[in-house]
DNA sequence: TGCGGCTATTG
DNA sequence: CACAATAGCCGCAG
């Protein structure tokens, strides 16, 4: 039974006052039907699908609450019906921040917050053979069972069966967020240097999930005819039938095979075959990767042909017509799945080739009529982040330069190129080659930063968990007994060393991204791509200059918010350009 | 059918 | 290939 409109208005007014007067966050859930439930500590309201867009738009604009969501699936369903929220507390994102890993469904989050074994969570339809109630007992209308676990029926969707249940589900997510907030407070109390800003990270990571939902829905503008033409130029016209596709494949293969004795039966797609082919040509290589074969292009014509074949084959299989058909809509938008934080260090990831699009294909990423791209990438983000998180005074001083490697080279007394290798080697844990000599200079020149990195590596080797500057848990595990101990633990050391830098960089990047998202709305600047240290905005032509300024201003704001207690702040720089095609931005 | 290895691409 | 990621194809185990 639906409440009368007057009742809803009265309830919304109560909700508004709890947000306005007490600054309360609002739990928000969306049922499959499109109905929405909202809850504060004292008020619950359910809104029918027809009114959701209007009610949420006004509430978001007028009340500005922090919306509490179970996950970005909620944001995705809202975006699908035209609602974009300003800020959120994403329980799944915060769970990943607090505990590492990827899985963060409500049942698991709830169990772990309450100290319950998540391996023993009740499942749907499970009979309790020890004689208890099969459904866990207690009141079905309450989401929590007497044993403390959430009801599997509710988790499977029964929460949406009635307005009362929806209200309870929205109230529950609010309780979960409060428990998470307390854990973050405790974290800050126990380790002010490492996780003092974990609460801020929780907020920016949450809002980044809203951004991900929008990125997935909006997509990246592609000139579809240009893309078809480009692919055709690389692998030929689109095959009409399966047989035609096979013939095209055979024709490409023949370009390589013609350089070999006939009937040698080489499968170019089988690396072992290719390797034995090379051996018959008198070439012995440990593997057949392109960088290794590159130097041997002139040794035998088959090698050059093979490398060309590999290039075309990649377009044909991964970035060919099938890719266009699957991921580019009729509206010319390339859409992929977005994740706000991957399992390791917390970078954003994307599917559909959005993060590994070959540079050859970038020319077809073209702004829509009346629009331009404003592209910005952060300069030398990782060493600057290392300066910030380690607090190394000399490295912080180096960040004041537009080119951080220039003062580093001066301090080490080496060429700039050597300084760059040394800094990167320190962050990645490289010890071999030319890096070794330069690294010794780093030890004396930047001891604080180097100790930060070696402490991280040591923790990794010993299997001790770490937290990034923003509070993300980097889970480390003991090296298994049967493993090659030295090799595996060295790998763990490199992984840990890098995760602390890459993870912190990802956190700063997301603060920047959500700041741009928020401030950019006023000039219709939409983020259409996030690429680890790069933002691509799609902007009306007339607002391009404003967007350039916006990107710089938001970086300054993000850097300030991200490193709140530094008396000498690290300087971050962005290279910004206005372009019609993404390819035009390439330096 | 799922998984590890190899390969290619990106930051 | 020093760190991270997605993705496709191959051979092999089950």
Strand runs, count: 15
Low-confidence parts lasting 5 or more residues at pLDDT below 50? Answer: none
Give the C-alpha Rg.
27 Å
Distance between the termini: 61 Å
CATH class of the largest domain: Alpha Beta
Q: Give the fraction of residues assigned to helices.
A: 40-55%
Label the structural class.
alpha+beta
Task: Calculate the mean pLDDT score and round it.
Answer: 93
- Major sheet strand order: 3-2-1-4-5
**Whole-number count of domains:** 4
Strand percent estimate: 5-15%
Largest sheet: 5 strands, mixed
SS element count, helices = 23
Shape: globular
The CATH architecture designation of the largest domain is: 2-Layer Sandwich
Please, what is the oligomeric state? single chain
CATH fold topology of the largest domain:
Nucleotidyltransferase, domain 5
């Amino acid at each position: 039974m639906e409440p009368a409109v007057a009742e809803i208005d009265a309830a919304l007014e109560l909700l508004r006052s709890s947000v306005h007067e007490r600054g309360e966050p609002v739990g928000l859930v969306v049922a499959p039907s499109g109905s929405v439930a909202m809850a504060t500590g004292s008020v619950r309201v359910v809104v029918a699908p027809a009114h959701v867009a209007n009610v949420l738009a006004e509430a978001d604009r007028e009340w500005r609450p922090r919306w509490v969501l179970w996950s970005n699936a909620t944001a995705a369903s809202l975006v699908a019906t035209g609602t974009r929220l300003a800020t959120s507390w994403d329980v799944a994102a915060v769970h990943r921040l607090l505990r590492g890993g990827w899985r963060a469904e409500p049942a698991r989050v709830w169990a772990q917050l309450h100290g319950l074994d998540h391996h023993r969570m009740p499942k749907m339809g499970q009979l309790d053979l020890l004689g208890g109630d099969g459904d866990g007992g207690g009141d079905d209308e309450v989401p929590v069972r007497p044993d403390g676990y959430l009801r599997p029926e509710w988790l499977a969707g029964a929460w949406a069966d009635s307005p009362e249940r929806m209200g309870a589900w929205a109230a529950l997510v609010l309780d979960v967020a409060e428990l998470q907030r307390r854990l973050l407070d405790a974290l800050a109390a126990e380790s002010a240097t490492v996780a003092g800003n974990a609460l801020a990270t929780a907020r920016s990571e949450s809002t980044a999930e809203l951004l991900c939902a929008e990125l997935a829905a909006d997509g990246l503008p592609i000139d579809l005819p240009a893309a078809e033409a480009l692919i055709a130029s690389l692998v030929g016209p689109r095959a009409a039938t399966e047989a035609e596709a096979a013939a095209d494949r055979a024709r490409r293969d023949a370009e390589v095979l013609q350089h070999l004795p006939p009937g040698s039966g080489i499968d170019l797609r089988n690396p072992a075959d290719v390797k034995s082919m090379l051996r018959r040509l008198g070439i012995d290589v440990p593997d057949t990767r392109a960088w290794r074969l590159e130097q041997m292009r002139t040794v035998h014509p088959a090698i050059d042909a093979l490398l060309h074949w590999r290039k075309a084959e990649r377009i044909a299989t991964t970035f060919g017509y099938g890719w266009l058909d699957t991921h580019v809509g009729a509206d010319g938008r390339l859409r992929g799945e977005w994740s706000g934080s991957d399992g390791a260090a917390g970078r954003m990831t994307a599917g559909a080739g959005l993060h590994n699009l070959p540079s050859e294909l970038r020319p077809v990423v073209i702004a829509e009529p009346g629009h331009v791209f404003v592209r910005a990438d952060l300069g030398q983000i990782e060493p600057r982040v290392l300066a910030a998180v380690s607090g190394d005074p000399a490295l912080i001083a180096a960040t004041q330069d537009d080119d951080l490697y220039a003062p580093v080279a001066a301090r080490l007394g080496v060429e700039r190129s050597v300084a760059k290798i040394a800094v990167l080697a320190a962050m990645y844990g490289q010890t071999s080659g030319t890096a070794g000599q330069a690294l010794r200079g780093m030890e004396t020149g930047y001891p604080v930063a180097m100790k930060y990195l070696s402490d991280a590596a040591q923790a990794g080797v010993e299997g001790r968990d770490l937290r990034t500057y923003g509070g993300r848990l980097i889970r480390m595990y003991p090296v298994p007994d049967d493993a090659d101990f030295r090799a595996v633990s060295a790998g763990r050391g490199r992984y840990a060393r890098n995760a602390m830098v890459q993870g912190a960089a990802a956190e700063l990047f997301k603060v920047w991204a959500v700041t741009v998202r928020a401030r950019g709305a006023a000039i219709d600047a939409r983020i259409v791509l996030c690429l680890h240290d790069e933002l691509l905005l799609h902007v009306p032509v007339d607002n391009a200059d404003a967007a350039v300024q916006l990107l710089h201003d938001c970086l300054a704001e993000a850097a300030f918010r991200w490193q709140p207690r530094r008396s000498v702040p690290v300087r971050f720089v962005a290279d910004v350009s206005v372009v019609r095609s993404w390819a035009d931005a390439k330096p």
